[in-house]
Design goal:
alpha/beta, 2 domains, five-stranded antiparallel β-sheet, four-stranded parallel β-sheet, 4 helices, elongated
């Protein structure tokens, strides 16, 4: 097709950062049209000064969607403040029960209790390891214990704790969600999708074509990626 209509043209993630002004937003929409794009996704990004999901935010979302419709472009929503979808810019995880958590391996009670992110101690074991011909440790025996004192010779003490993700500026002082907890997901939908519906639902299917949701993040597995916890290299997602 030599001159495709808007639905067949590219639509960029449009970074909303800094202090949002209607005149500047409209100028950029005009630029999208001049560049040949078919529309845009309104996407909160690092540096945003206007309150995310505040009254001004939604006023500008509506204004931009209606202006895009007027000039023949498609406006789409993005359902998160940055990435990944699920926290509503950290608003969901103000409640600790919805926070991302991990099964975290420690070698002493003292080490675990010193970590402010540890919620509870789940399991304690005495573990016997032996090295193979390559010098790698292998488990040969274990038994449960109730304290570090009950360790036989040749065994080491390990415990597994339930540990929350450390708070981060990336989530506006909170954490990512426990993506394996359906109640956390319901809270996210209530906090963001339903709020968008309340302010902009009358435009859905007309001036606003839909909502993009980014992939959820299941958490690093014994790697520490994206985590600030001190014990991050000995943690795996837990719910």
């Amino acid at each position: 097709m030599a001159d495709p209509t808007a639905e067949y043209r590219g639509k960029p993630f449009w970074a909303w950062n800094g202090e949002l002004k209607k005149e500047e937003l409209f100028r950029q929409i005009d630029a999208f049209r001049e560049m040949g794009f078919g529309g845009f996704f309104m996407h909160s990004r690092t540096g945003l000064k206007t309150e995310y999901l505040g009254n001004t935010w939604f006023e500008l979302v509506r204004e931009c969607a209606l202006y895009a419709q007027k000039i023949g472009l498609e406006a789409w929503l993005y359902d998160e403040d940055r990435w990944p979808s699920g926290t509503c810019g950290g608003l969901v995880t103000k409640e600790r029960k919805y926070r991302m958590r991990f099964l975290s391996l420690y070698y002493s009670d003292r080490e675990a209790y010193a970590c402010p992110e540890v919620v509870s101690i789940l399991y304690r074991y005495a573990v016997k390891l032996e090295k193979d011909e390559n010098g790698e440790d292998h488990l040969v025996d274990f038994y449960t214990v109730d304290s570090e004192r009950n360790i036989r010779e040749g065994y080491i003490y390990v415990l597994f704790a339930e540990e929350e993700q450390k708070e981060s500026d990336f989530y506006n002082g909170n954490t990512y969600i426990d993506a394996m907890n359906i109640e956390a997901t319901k809270r996210f939908l209530q906090t963001t999708h339903e709020k968008n519906t309340g302010y902009c639902g009358d435009l859905f299917g007309t001036a606003i074509k839909g909502i993009f949701t980014d992939e959820p993040y299941r958490g690093a597995v014994f790697s520490g990626f994206g985590l600030a916890n001190k014990n991050r290299n000995r943690m795996t997602p837990w719910t």
